[in-house]
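Subject: sequence -> structure tokens, single chain

Hey, anyone have a minute? Need the predicted structure for the following. Not urgent.
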Amino acid sequence: MPLRTHKHLLQAQQGYKEMSKQAKVLLDQYTAEKEAEILQYKNELAQLQLRFDQAQSDILLWVRKYGVGRGRSVFILCTASA
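Reply:
Had a minute. Here:
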């Protein structure tokens, strides 16, 4: 193999290694960003679940306090979706 071709192949290989390292860094950054985004969504979902549970509890208290007639239908609707 001529020396020039060998040198060219080594340079190309080094360039590919460097591009691979850069791609890994970018992938790691992207992964970290997406994991942070997922964590944020999970936290938001947990907060929404707490608010939903509190609303259901409030409805049950309201039905127990005022619930006759229409209140009972509200109670039935709430328990049917749970």
